[in-house]
Amino acid sequence: MAAKYTKVVIGIDQSYDNTGISIAADGKLLKVKSLNMHKLKTKTAKRHTLFEELTKVCSSVCPKAKEVVCIIERIRLHSQGFLSMDYVKSIGALNATIVDALEPFSVPVVSVDTRCWKSQVVGTSKPCDNKYGVPPEKWPTVKWCIEQGFRKQLLIPIEGRKEKGTFMHNGKKYMYNNDASDSAGIAMFGFAGDENKLKEEK
Prior knowledge:
By secondary structure, the chain is an alpha+beta fold. It has helices at 43-61, 85-102, 114-122, 139-147, 151-154, 178-192, and strands at 5-13, 18-25, 28-36, 65-73, 109-112, 155-157, 167-169, 172-176, 199-200.
């Protein structure tokens, strides 16, 4: 079967609560979603779930493309000037799960710095206030993703009393999935960004 695409990029915004997973092909964003794992009780269970999800993703996209690459967000060693070894070990284990899941499909995993993909894909890495309750540092990417036609995929219906980060639309309460939008930006970096800024993850 002839490949449908020349190049597919899987963009991942990895976390133990809600991992964004988006797919872009030949310069066009195809799928924007996330894997919600906050109800799973252990990090081991979350890594297993992510491994299984990425196996499904690769099984679907690899036969359709001549080349498949996965881009993840690079570990931030310093957050507000503070280095958390627990965070580094925890995310390092999650990154290793991603690498191990993609290895049987011969899909290389590379990482990109947060500010780098935001500035090159979205156009800015600066925070921006908004009326939707989205954290200011996340809003420019959410707005960009909406402009790409993926607003519906970012809407999370909210039940109950939760107010923070929510907004009303047609009488119903929602919040925007900024993890999914981040993964979309990371996926598009594979086409719009500087490849020299990518670093191989092993």
